[in-house]
Structures are given as C-alpha cells and as structure tokens.
Amino acid sequence: xxLAYYPGCSGLGTxxxxxxxxxxxxxALGVALKEIPDWSCCGxxxxxxxxxxxxxxLSARNLVGAARxxxxxVATPCPSCLSNLxxxxxxxxxxxxRAAVGRLLxxxxxxxxxxxxxxxMLEMLVTRVGLDAIRAKVRRxxxxxxxxxxxxxxxTRPTDVMRFDDPENPTSMDDLLTALGAEVVPYPxxxxxxxxxYGVARNDIVxxxxxxxxxxxxxxxxxxxxxxxxxCQMNLDLRQPQVxxxxxxxxxMPVFYFTQLLGRALGVPESELGLEQxxxxxxxxxxxxxxxLAARExxxxxxxxxxxxxxxxxxxxxxxxxxxxxxxxxxxxA
Amino acid sequence: MDVTNLETARDESFIHAVMEESGQDLSxxxxxxxCTAGCPCGFAYDIQVSQIMRNLQAGRKEKVLNSxxxxxxxxxxxxxxxxxxxxxxxxxxxxxxxxxxREGRGAERCVTTFWDAFLASxxxxxxxxxLGVVANYVARTGRVLTDIDLLPxxxxxxxxxxxxxxxRGRDEIARIFQRFEEExxx
Amino acid sequence: xxxxxxxxxCGSNIGGTVDVPGVAEVxxxxxxxVFASDTMYACSEPGQAAIVDAIREHALDGVVVAxxxxxxxxxxxxxTVERAGLNRYMFEMANIREHVSxxxxxxxxxxxxxxxxxxxxxxxxxxxxxLYPKSFDVTKRVLVIGGGVAGIxxxxxxxxxxxxxxxxxxxxxxxxxxxKLDKTFPTVDCSSCILGPKMVDVAQHPNIRLYAHAxxxxxxxxxxNFTVNIRRKATYxxxxxxTGCGLCMEKCxxxxxxxxxxxxxxxxxxxxxxxxxxxxxxxxxxxxxCRQFVKGKCGVCAxxxxxxxxxxxxxxxxxxxxVGAIVTATGYDLFDHTRYAEYGGGRYPDVITSLQYERLxxxxxxxxxxxxxxxxxREPKTVVFIQCVGSRDRSVDRPYCSGFCCMYTAKQAVLxxxxxxxxxxxxxxxxxxxxxxxxxxxxxxxxEEYGVQYVRGRVSMIVPQGDTxxxxxxxxxxxxxxxxxxxxxxxxxxxxxxxxAPQLAEKLRISYDNYGFFMESHCKLRPVETxxxxxxxxGSCQGPKDIPSSVAQxxxxxxxxxxxxxxxxxxxxxxxxxxxxRRCIGxxxxxxxxxxGAIEWMELRGETKARVIETxxxxxxxxxxxxxxxAIQLQHFTDNQILAEVNALCLS
Lengths: 334, 186, 652
Known about the structure:
The complex is a heterotrimer.
Chain A: E1 3-5, H1 16-28, E2 34-35, H2 44-48, H3 52-68, E3 73-76, H4 79-91, H5 95-104, E4 117-120, H6 121-129, H7 131-136, E5 146-150, H8 159-162, H9 172-179, E6 183-184, H10 203-219, E7 224-227, H11 230-238, E8 255-257, H12 258-266, H13 283-305, H14 314-318, H15 324-327
Parallel strand pairs in A: 1-2, 1-3, 3-4, 5-6, 5-7, 7-8
Helix pairs in contact in A: 1-12, 3-4, 3-5
Chain B: H1 12-22, H2 34-38, H3 49-57, H4 61-65, H5 69-72, H6 78-82, H7 89-102, H8 109-125, H9 130-141, H10 151-154, H11 170-185
Chain C: E1 3-8, H1 20-27, E2 33-39, H2 45-58, E3 62-67, H3 70-83, E4 91-95, H4 97-101, H5 107-126, E5 135-137, E6 141-145, H6 149-160, E7 164-169, E8 183-184, E9 189-190, H7 191-204, E10 208-212, E11 214-222, E12 225-232, H8 247-251, E13 257-258, E14 267-268, E15 271-272, E16 284-285, H9 291-294, H10 300-304, E17 317-323, E18 325-328, E19 332-334, E20 351-353, H11 354-361, E21 382-389, H12 405-419, E22 424-429, H13 439-448, E23 453-456, E24 459-465, E25 468-475, E26 480-486, E27 488-493, E28 495-497, H14 501-508, E29 535-537, H15 547-566, E30 569-571, E31 577-579, H16 589-593, E32 599-604, E33 607-612, H17 622-626, E34 632-634, H18 639-651
Parallel strand pairs in C: 1-2, 1-3, 3-4, 6-7, 6-18, 7-10, 18-29, 20-27, 21-22, 21-27, 22-23
Antiparallel strand pairs in C: 5-30, 8-9, 11-12, 12-17, 13-14, 15-16, 19-28, 24-25, 25-26, 31-34, 32-33
Helix pairs in contact in C: 1-5, 2-3, 5-18, 6-7, 6-15, 11-12, 12-13
GO molecular function, one term (chain B): metal ion binding
Keywords (chain B): 4Fe-4S, Iron, Iron-sulfur, Metal-binding, Oxidoreductase
Protein name (chain B): Heterodisulfide reductase, C subunit
C-alpha cells in the first residue's frame, strides 16, 4: 500500500529528533514512506481557531497532494496535524463545506471528494506492522526501563474523528513499549492536556499542567516519560525547568519520543535516533533502568542465599484454589 | 451585579448562529458541569466552560464573546469526550473564537497575537518558521523576555533553523489566505 | 341490510376540524344506510343510549360509528350494539379522529376524508357476518417468573386467592436484589428483616410450588392454557436431602470461588449457601470453581455431608407445568460501570458499585458489616458517592433516569455515618429525585442531620494518588472546579433490563423496548398487562422502580390473574382464520408460515386439508396471504371485506 508521509512543520525544527527517529524505525520495519511533495503547514490550532474553512483548505492541499502522488493513506507523527487533516477529510462529506474549501484552493473542488485517510504513525506501526512482528525484531530489549506512556489529549479524541484506541485509557503505546521489553507503569494522566501551544503566550498554563504530568510520572515510579507528540515533548522536556510541581527539587525526567525507544530496541544506530537532541539527558533513564535491574538481581541473590522461597510465585500453589482472578477482592470488577 | 432581564438580555440570532455553525443543539445541555470538571484549563478561566454553555442558552452574546475563557481553551476535547449528552463542546468553543475574531474581539491579546504570528509565518513561507513566529510575537507584544531562559537549552541542539523552510508552492498558500480574507470582507 | 351511521363530534376534538353534520348527511345516501345522525359524544351514556334507541326504532341490523380509534372504543361500542340485541361483529368503526381531525386543519379536506372513511366502513359492514366466540376451560394455576420482591408478592397474593402458583427463580435462592440490600429507604428498615418473612411464607405456602435454580425453557399455548417447560438446573446437591446445615461450606477447600451474591467484593466456597436467610436454604456447587469438577479429585463435601446429599453426576431436568396465566417479575440488572474509563474502568479496587457497597455495609456480607476498602482493608474516612453513573446519559445509551439511585445514595451516606462516625461523605449529583412518601424528607435528613456534603455537579475523572483517589468534579452552584481526595468511591449505577430479558420476552411473545424492559399495554392505564393475553408484568422488568412500586405491581398483577380466573371459562376471539375445505388443496404452506403453530393437518374424506386450532390462532392474517387458493380467510377481515373497503375508496 502506498503510504504518504506528512512530517509536519515542527518535524523540521523543535521536534527534529521525532522526525529522524520516525524515518529510521520505518526503514527498519520496512514501512515505505512517500513524503507528500511540497507539503505545507496544516495550520494547527491557530487556523482551526480562526476559521474551519481556512483550516480545511490548508489541510486539503496536502491531502490532494497525497492523492496525486498515488497514495491511499497518509501517516503523520504529529497529533495536531493528524487532527486537522482528519477533521478536514471528515467534513468534506458535506457538500457546502467542500464547495467553500474549493473556493479557497487552486484545486478544482471535485479533487476534494475522495481524499486519502489519515493515521498517526503510532497507529500505522501498531496495526500495519503489528506487535508480533515488532517483538520479533527486538535486538536490544529495554530491560528494567520503567516508562510512563503519555498519549496527549488529541491523539484519540474526539472519538468520532480520530477513531483510534480508547479516549480515556489508550493502550497501544503501552502494548508497544511492553513488546520492546520495557515496564509500563500505571499512569492516570495518559490523555490529560500538557498545555499545548500555550507555552509562549501563557507560560503559566503549561507550567502547571506539564508540572502535574511530570510529578505524576515520578510518583508512579517511572524512569522516563514516553510521548507521541512534538508539543507534548517540548512542554515536558524543553520546558521542564519552567514547570511548577509539588516536588520542589529538580525533576530530571527524560522524555522520549516512542520512536526513539522503538529504534533503540530494534538496534537502529543511535546516530539516527536523535537522542542527543533531547534536553533532559536520556542517559539518566538508561542508568535508572540498569540500577533497577541490578537491584532486582541483588534481591534475588539475597533471597536464594537466605533460603526463602520468596520468588516462587504464589499462583503456582494457588492453582489448586480455584480461579485466582476472581478470587482477589477486587472491588472494581462486578 | 445587576438583575438580568432574561427577555431583553437574550440575543436569539446569536443562539441560532452558534447552533448552526457548530452543528450542536444547545438545548441538549442540562448543565451537569462535567465539561468544567474535566477542563484542564479551568483554573485560568474567567467563566467556566459549563457557564459559557449556560450563557449561550440564555443568549448572552457580549458576555461570551468578550470572555477570556474562549482564548484559554486548549482544544483538548476532554469536554466533548465526556459530555453525557454527546455535545461537541470543543467545537462550540472553536465557533465562539471564530465569531469573536470576525467581530474583532479577543480578550487575551497574547494568545491572539501568537496565533496571528503563527499564521503570518504560514502565509509567508508555506511552513512555520519557528524562530520567525517568536520574533514576530515578541515584536508585536513587546515581551522581549519570552522564553529567553530556554535559549541556552535549545540552541546547542541544532534543531532550530535560522532560516525559514520555504516551499515551492508558497504562493498557493498565500492565495488561500488572500481568498479567505476577500470572502470575509465581502 | 339496514345500516345506521353515527358520526361523533367528540366535543371539538373532531367537530373542530370536520364538518360532522355534513358527513352524516352524506352518509345517509350510502347504499343500505337507512339512518344517519351526528352525536356530540358517542361513547357517553346518552350517546350510547341514542344508538340503542336508533337500533330498536329503525330496526337496524348493522351500525357504523365514525369517531376515535377502535383501540379506544371498539369494545365499548360492540357492547352497546350487543345490548340492543345485535351480534357485536355487526359493527364497524371509522377513525375520523386520529386519522383525520388530529392530523390536519383543512376542514374541507378533512370532511371529505371522513366521508370516505365512513363509506369504506359501510361497504365492509355490508359484508360482515355475525361471529360467535367459543368458550374454553382455564387452568387455574399461575406461573410467576422471578422470585424477587415483586414476584414474591404476586405469588403470595395469587396463592392466598386460592390459585396454585408455580414460582420459577433463576438463582438458587429467592429474594432478588432486595435480599442483597442492607437497609431500605426511607425508613432504614433492615431489608432481609422485612423480606425474610415473605420469603418464608413463599416456602411454606401450600399453594406455591417453588423451583429455584431453574429457568423457563419454553412456553406454548395461549391464555388459560399455557404449557411451560422449566429447566431445573443441576445444583449437584439433592435438595430433598440437604438440610442447609452448612457443614459443606465449612469444609470446602476451594475458598476463592466467585461470589456473585456478594457482587464479587468477597470470595466464597465452591459449594455454598448464598446467605443465611436464603430460601430455599440449600447448598449448590459452582462447577467452574469446584475442584472435583475441575481437577477430578476432592470429594470432601460428599464425605462430610451428614445426609449424603452431594450428587456430582446430577444433570439438568426438564419439568412440565400447565398454567392459565403468567406473571413476569424478572427484575433488573445494574449498569456495567467499567464502561466509564474515566472512573477507572474497573481497574481501581476502591471504586465500587452501590450494590457492592451494600454488601460491605451488610452484617451478612463478606466483611461482617464493617466498611473496609477492598484494596487494603482500611476503614475509609472520606467516601465519595457519584450519582447518575449510567443513567441520564445519552453517551452510553442510557438516557432514562433509574428512579431509585438518589434515594439509595442518601441511604448509603446516612449508613456510612452510622458505621464510621468520624467519616465525611460527599455526594456528587445533578438533581435529587425523591418523589415517594417521606422521600424528600429523608434526603434532607442526610444533608441536615448526617452532615453529608451534597455537591451539585458531575465528576469528570478519578485519579489514583498514592493510596487515595482524587475525585475531580465541579460545583456548578459555586461555579468552581472541585476535587476531593477520597478513600472510597461508590458509584450509583443505574438500572438496566435483566440479563436475558429480550430472550424471555420472545418466549412469552411479549414486546420489549430498546432497553429490554417489557412493554405494558398502556403506559398510563394498563401498567401490569401486556398485549399478549394472559401474560402480566410486575416490578422492574417493566421499568426501574423502587420496592413499594414493585410490591404494588406484584399485587396488581395478582389481581389481574385472579380476575381472569374468576370467570371459570374464557371466551376465544372469533376474529380468527378459518379454512374453506372446498378450496383448500392441502399444500401446507399456511402450516409452515403460521408463527403460532395454530394450523394443523386433518384428514377429511380421504383428503388432507388444513384446520385452524381456534384457541391458538391470534388472528395475524399471515396464513391468508400465504394461501395460494385463498382458502383460508381471517374472519371479520376476509379478502372480500378488505377489497370492499378498497373499492369503496378507489372507485367512488
């Protein structure tokens, strides 16, 4: 299938390492990407907050470009671009909207009637390539690395447009990271907004919202946060010194793009993943992972030495006790 | 706070315009407040989002379009996702922004200026020139200290291009904006 | 024929948009019409008297009344003409209200249409023949499906009325949801204390035969003569021998079996009696949890049982009962709160449902009535109740209000204060619905005397924070976002139809709505009857309701049953199909298409023909359109009668 690729403007700038690692993992997994020729900005929030027809036109130009290049679908790493492109395509079903957009474009309006569908890069990798295929290609498992998966507010919402994963508790990135050998910590703010594009105009908003996200990740015991959005990454990583959070002292929470960790696990050369372009030193996370592994080994060794069978899992004995799943007093499961 | 005469304060055409442009039926809202409860930016709002909806039901055009809240909305869609009456609240907020801009209103200057700077960059180059946007914003607002603390953090990363990434078809983009403006003034 | 036409004004209901006298005038000229008049209210006493007088005075042998819908007054007017000595089927109605005056305001068009409808009725009447109902015997026994409080009440009332009752209950004990409650609003009566005596009455009543752990397999027949196949599911314990001593429960080694009675907040043994006041108080084995069944070795209960009641090889058994009426009282189930992912989607152990909380509050529950958090067993100090979880919510396809959650939440908040005096409870609500007797006063007591903090607003999400849960909501009255760090969160889940309700409805041949609640005949005037003769409804299966309403409906359904049986014999409706054996070629198509199995083969002078079983036929007419020969005709709606109406409309 011919897959068009829409990098998004920040991919050339503040999220350069996302763009690089995306290309690298697609190459490693055999996903051919065809960059939409001469693609232009989708307008992001400023456009859709000004006018939906303008926003639709800016997006449509790119979708028409993808169609012209013979592509049946478009993949983009940026959720904001994703949202704009998908919303534009979704609204093209309405004749009035299509005509209004057509009036703004150089294109004839009938080019707008059938536009290729748009997906996130996460969706493409998880559904097209598949977790089994990815797992089979892991060379360097992310052993001992505890991660908080942060999806951002728009990747799965609103559901009728985005049509991917769950709007409250998405798990595709969790599953992907688990397949790479990492340990995903339970994270209650998976889809809670980081402050989006307000870092420049209302820094206080980003400071508070991103601060809470980072604090929660730390409280959950994560060594790092993993994201799939350029703006989330910038707010959590670049702006980490600006955030306010109850902890007080320096945060030091590395924030990876999921494609960087994916690439590392697949054995892609680090020079292609842009880890050096992250602000908070990624090595902090890997060191924490090593320490965690070492601590676990030490615990096991101590247990063996003292003769306690603490590591023998209770379920082996409990197999005789009936279904353990239902047995646990889990109030939540009715 | 004066007594509101519900008959005279009600701008019926405004209610219709909002419903038509957003495609949402405001009468479905039963003021449960779920949208406000989940709004990440509610702490900064002058009017909570469920109260915006209430004011819309009552047709209070001035109050709504002059609010700061509509500019601080992050477009995160939490409200839309959780509304028990399936109202796309985020879309209603977007429409209120459209209407406010058409009438030249914008209570949060910094936000509207940032967005204008962003779109000006798109119009000029076809793609966003990040440094240019910030420079434009700083020039228009006079806030020279904006993110100055981040400069030493990002400069060595080699990500920010000193020059814009122009595209071949940037005239096409400029034309989109031009036609948009013409349609507006018509 | 000598036909009389009566055109009704119905006050201004019809007269306002139809020229009623004019229609009567036109009708006078129709063939076979010897008398036509307009009347103000045909159904009123003087109106009916006028019809009777006209029949006698003008020797009428057929009557047309042009008024409202037959669904309203056809039975009324049939009785009227019968009083005047005519056969009740020599009567036709033209609906000029619902079909004419209520749907348009154009007087001329309406009057024309009314005149045409009257013409059609006249032409049909000209082909009508007297029909005579047959009477048949009634089995004076009633099947009550469901042993919750509504079913229990219906069963007791019928039994006290001298009717034999067959009570079928799906669980191994009767009592339904009420047996799971700790206390009931608004009196805070102990639920099992007030229900218990009724349950014992059911067990001891000589007129009630109770089949517990049983389900209705199939139903055939018709009002007065139903045949019901009941599947008695295997309990693996011989209930004739079991004394309910409970020794098996003490000795059973499989201690982590799913505990459905306690809503899975605890675990139980594989062989168990659900709760101390269970009726029947007999043990049952869960084969999915029992080691003997799963692994093939254990047998402890069989060894321990003092009466040797264990039967691992027991199988389901089908019993057949004949009854004359059926009362469904199958109750409700609760909304699956895991659909609200923002409340944890079932992943947070201390976010529980109201019924789970009820089990924690109950002295016969898994914690002995001590309120403890499921996660760590600590006593909670801050409890948050969230109302409307799965009610009044279009986004989860539950737009309706469940009616009892505001009340039970107030009750649970009051009980929480009783159990944990230094606790504080919060209730997040949208509205407080307290319509019953002393209900409003009770909710006020919760707020005024028990210090329960009522916050008007919904909760957007619950975020685990350490070992508490941050509940993020809103106080719309203050206009502020609010949060509460809760130790325990109780979700007031809404009611939905009982599992398997639509399938049971299909067996009973009754209607149900989108949500699986059974449909009553008329939402205002006939709440416990269905459109299927002989089948009645009671309790929450008809729609969510509280205990007093369920009990009232139970008694109401019983009164319908007793009324049905009081007559001794029932009349069959003669508007059924009949086969003209001269035309019947014995192809059998009608037999296969009849949805009621009301047509059978018969031998007639060496030839095979079809015959209608008169008491089973429901008069649907499918056979008449199937028959290639037109041999089978629906009496009172024959092809000729219908064609006469069509011709009247199209040819005149």
